[in-house]
Amino acid sequence: MNMVRKIETYDERNAGSAPAVDPAVARFLDAVWMERGLSVNTLAAYRADLTALSRWLEARRTTIHRTTRPDLEGFLAGRVQIGARPRSSARQLSSFRRFFRYLVREGVLSEDPTAQIAMPKIPRTLPKSLTEDEVESLLAAPDVADPLGHRDRTMLEVLYATGLRVSELVSVRFAQVNTNQGVIRILGKGNRERLIPLGDESVRWLAEFVQGPRSEILLDRQTDFLFPTRRGDRMTRQAFWHIIKRYAAKAGVQKELSPHTLRHAFATHLLNRGADLRVVQMLLGHSDLSTTQIYTHVARERLKEMHGKHHPRG
Question: What are the residue numbers of the active site?
Fold first, then answer.
């Protein structure tokens, strides 16, 4: 299956049928997939950005092969007028740069129309995090007497103990987890592998989940995915995000959350307790230390009165 078909399958599963793809865009997606091993999510974003540009150009009776700098500036300006934020515009421009550099490299274009376009300035925003008490309330929200509730509690425990991305968590398979050694093996962005300690608490929940509730969810069905749905399928990122929001409301957490809230809490709480920034970078799977450094602004004060406790829990 080529990469375009994989993305279309992803779209059909998560957001409906996929639009047609320009042949040049299809070749680009296959090329960057082979070169970099990017995730389907990233490639789907490239395809969406380039399809939006292609349609905008078609409405102006031109094609993506004839794109000029004024065309791109007009497209981006139009997006801003209808409310696009700088971060969204920057992501689209990044997609366009990669695509047009590919066309130049392939000899399709003689020059890159994005070369003289400056990246929008993105205001630095601190990631939303939770206090340790709020995390405890969130973790305690699922009804663990119910098999699905036990699954949700286990997923939340693993998320907070490891700092995984939600996309990584829902994709975890049995073979990636070693409860005897207390580690989980993750293949993250750019096919970079990392080995993350689970902590005693999440190991205990995982062991209990596998021994009973997981089989009750699956009944006679089989799957390699560690956290199946009631239908025996792999859970989507969107489904787990709804689960987090539901339990946050039940726990009385008033803060605005994101799918990465527990990932942010993991990083912030580790730094609060004195963890080395480079260790946190390795655990989060950040390729650039500057990405991790934003958490030092969130974790400004060391919690000296809590120096006797350990994090993640256990």
Answer: 165, 189, 260, 263, 286, 295
